[in-house]
């Protein structure tokens, strides 16, 4: 057939049910990467433009599907992709931009999230039109395999970057399977074989060039085979989606208790942090620290808030033993020496570190801290010199709001889905604050006073900060810090989420033991001319009490922890308190809310633990309700199982097995007929089926049926010809049938 003739045939193809289902599958296949791109766009700004571009791509594909030939459509897709690529490159800040693009691409293909790219919104807007257009165009043309290639490539890319979650990826896989499966059925139901170069019977190994077999039984068998395969493809990923799947961490922080530990939920030297629900503690010793004073031992900070977690943008650069920049304000030097007491993958240090020496080698994170290139083994040590900011309340008040554009763009970002009520509540609470410093103090103290502390929480299914602010009464450090950063950003104040360890347990004049349960999250706020200043909105009292209890519980088993060369961990009692020095140095003696925030993390003999659920293991916790995505996949799985069972004959065989072995009594006439049919089913299975036109007596004689079966046939003849049967006859018939079935 000529090309023109083929086009005419395609235009006349009816919209069968299989074709509609194939198009729905294609929509689901491209919908999975679209869902991911919408999420990325929403995190960094208003997704309206992205939705408009996606809609235009769908409309364009729909309008052009009947008039544009496939080679030209591929050209349109290529132009869309190339145009987006050029637009993205032209808006990159580095020179040469192509080098940055290639570096980002290589990183993305090895597991780096798109959220770590500064201009992710521009990337999404540039990338979206091409796969949407190509997928929908070829689906409408009934080139189903080609359509799934476009959608599948986009989905595979987002799976590689880890931006497409398990549920989203599986939904995309289901859509691809549905498109191919129902597309094949569409081809089976018409004379035109869709986009397959061979007819559908090629799948069974027959000659594709021969005319299709018009036998309806063969077509039904082909349809059944396709649906069985489709059902299996749907069921397997849908079932797998119900299995907890998490990305493997570099290190395990699990202490053997139920639930994830505080430390494990905060960081594993990774680039992202997901807010968890209920978590536990580990008293395992991680470091011993020699320092002239206790500080918060900072590990990392995160700048991009996603609504349910945090991401650190930017690319680390190698540390070449050069001195890093000090904070812009007045500083003083602090030397610290850390010794690893377990295998671990972080290099904590007081902010702001400027020099590092030791093993392993480190890189400089985008925010200016150190991160290891490898892992630390027990006994490894390193030294850090930090420049501590010396700031006064007056200096912070007078810092002003002259933020540079880069700081404002990066550290005031909020997901577009953040409800307006967060900003409204914050504005009311801070109405009397006259500058960012006072605003930060008001928010910090309000959170400390109004929210309780607990590790036993249900993770909200929507924006964490909004949920904690309006729906939750208590939470742990991650919830407090996330909410404070969000509230500050609604007021245009640059802030970021920071994680690390509190000072730890003091065991000597200048020595501290840092445990996993000292892991903590706090807030850093930027002040022009000063730098980043630390605030801690988490109430310290309840946290310290539970932390101490966790250590006592761990020591109750009779084992005494040691550090270094086997030295036992013993509490050091100084002449003064062991409260860490203020987070910012201050000479002010004010006691009003104008004081600079101080670190209240202290590890005296009566307070050395971070939050714990002391009733862990005894409290019954109800499982969380499944999400909408999980419920959707559950329904898909059930439908797939039902379809597979039906098409494979499993449901019919199960029904027959029950029907054969159990006869519910109704009335004598029905009971006799049912008993006879049960026996005939057994005979057909064990011998052969009764042929068309063959009488019952001739059939029974041919298979040499025994006297019991002959008697049952006689009882049925009495029913059919005389219509007179009573309860006794029915009992006899059922008893004969039960005996024959049980003898198999």
UniProtKB/TrEMBL annotation:
Q: Which Pfam families match?
A: Transglut_core (PF01841)
Composition bias (Low complexity) maps to 576-611
State the residue spans of region: Disordered.
193-218, 553-626
Q: Where is the Transglutaminase-like domain?
A: 469-539
Keyword tags:
Membrane, Transmembrane, Transmembrane helix
User: Which residues span the membrane?
Assistant: 20-41, 47-65, 72-90, 120-138, 166-188
Q: What is this protein called in UniProt?
A: Transglutaminase
Source organism of the structure: Haloarcula rubripromontorii
From the broadest rank down, the organism's phylogenetic lineage runs: Archaea, Methanobacteriati, Methanobacteriota, Stenosarchaea group, Halobacteria
């Amino acid at each position: 057939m000529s090309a023109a003739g083929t086009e005419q045939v395609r235009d006349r193809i009816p919209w069968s049910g299989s074709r509609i289902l194939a198009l729905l599958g294609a929509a689901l296949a491209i919908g999975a990467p679209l869902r991911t791109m919408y999420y990325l766009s929403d995190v960094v700004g208003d997704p309206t433009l992205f939705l408009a571009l996606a809609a235009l791509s769908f409309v364009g594909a729909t309008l052009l599907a009947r008039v544009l030939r496939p080679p030209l459509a591929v050209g349109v897709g290529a132009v869309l992709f190339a145009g987006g690529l050029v637009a993205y490159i032209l808006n990159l800040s580095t020179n040469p931009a192509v080098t940055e693009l290639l570096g980002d691409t290589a990183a993305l293909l090895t597991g780096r999230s798109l959220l770590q790219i500064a201009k992710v919104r521009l990337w999404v807007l540039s990338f979206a039109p091409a796969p949407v257009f190509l997928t929908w165009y070829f689906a409408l043309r009934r080139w189903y395999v080609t359509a799934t290639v476009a959608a599948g490539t986009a989905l595979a890319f987002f799976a590689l970057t880890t931006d497409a979650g398990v549920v989203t990826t599986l939904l995309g896989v289901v859509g691809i399977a549905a498109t191919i499966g129902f597309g094949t059925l569409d081809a089976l139901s018409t004379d035109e074989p869709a986009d397959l170069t061979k007819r559908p019977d090629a799948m069974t190994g027959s000659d594709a060039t021969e005319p299709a077999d018009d036998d309806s039984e063969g077509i039904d068998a082909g349809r059944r085979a396709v649906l069985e395969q489709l059902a299996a493809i749907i069921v397997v990923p849908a079932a797998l989606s119900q299995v907890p799947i998490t990305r493997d961490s570099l290190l395990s922080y699990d202490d053997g208790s139920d639930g994830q530990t505080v430390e494990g939920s905060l960081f594993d030297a990774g680039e992202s942090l997901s807010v968890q629900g209920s978590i536990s503690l580990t008293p395992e010793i991680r470091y011993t620290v020699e320092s002239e004073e206790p500080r918060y031992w900072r590990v990392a900070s995160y700048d991009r808030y996603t609504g349910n977690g945090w991401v650190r943008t930017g690319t680390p650069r190698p540390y070449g033993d050069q001195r890093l920049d000090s904070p812009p304000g007045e500083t003083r030097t602090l030397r610290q020496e850390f010794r690893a007491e377990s295998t671990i993958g972080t290099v904590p240090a007081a902010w702001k570190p400027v020099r590092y020496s030791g093993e392993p080698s480190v890189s400089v994170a985008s925010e200016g801290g150190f991160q290891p290139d490898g892992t630390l083994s027990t006994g490894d040590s390193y030294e850090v010199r930090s420049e501590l900011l010396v700031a006064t309340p007056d200096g912070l008040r007078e810092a002003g709001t002259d933020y540079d554009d880069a700081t404002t763009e990066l550290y005031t970002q909020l997901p577009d889905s953040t409800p307006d009520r967060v900003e409204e509540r914050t504005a009311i609470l801070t109405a009397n604050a006259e500058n960012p410093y006072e605003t930060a103090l008001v928010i910090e103290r309000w959170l400390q006073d109004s929210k309780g502390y607990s590790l036993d929480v249900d993770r909200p299914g929507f924006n964490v900060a909004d949920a904690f602010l309006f729906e939750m009464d208590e939470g742990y450090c991650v919830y407090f810090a996330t909410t404070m950063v969000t509230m500050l950003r609604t007021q245009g104040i640059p802030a970021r989420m920071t994680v690390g360890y509190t000072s730890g347990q003091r065991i000597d004049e200048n020595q501290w033991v840092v445990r996993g349960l000292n892991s903590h999250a706090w807030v850093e706020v930027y002040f022009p001319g000063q730098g980043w200043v630390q605030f801690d909105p988490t109430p310290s009292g309840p946290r310290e009490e539970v932390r101490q209890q966790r250590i006592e519980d761990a020591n109750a088993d009779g084992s005494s922890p040691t550090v270094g060369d086997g030295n036992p961990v013993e509490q050091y009692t100084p002449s003064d308190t062991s409260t860490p020095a203020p987070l910012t140095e201050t000479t002010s003696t004010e006691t009003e809310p104008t004081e600079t925030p101080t670190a209240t993390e202290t590890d005296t003999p009566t307070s050395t633990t971070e939050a714990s659920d002391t009733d862990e293991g005894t409290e019954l916790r109800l499982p969380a309700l499944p999400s909408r995505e999980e419920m959707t996949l559950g329904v898909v799985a059930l439908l797939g199982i039902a379809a597979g069972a039906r098409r494979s004959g499993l449901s019919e065989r199960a029904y027959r097995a029950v029907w054969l072995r159990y006869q519910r009594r109704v009335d004598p006439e029905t009971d006799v007929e049912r008993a006879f049919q049960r026996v005939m089913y057994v005979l057909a299975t064990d011998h052969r089926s009764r042929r068309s036109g063959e009488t019952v007596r001739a059939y029974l004689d041919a298979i040499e049926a025994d006297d019991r079966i002959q008697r049952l046939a006689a009882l049925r003849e009495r029913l059919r010809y005389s219509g007179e049967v009573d309860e006794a006859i029915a009992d006899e018939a059922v008893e004969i049938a039960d005996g024959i079935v049980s003898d198999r």
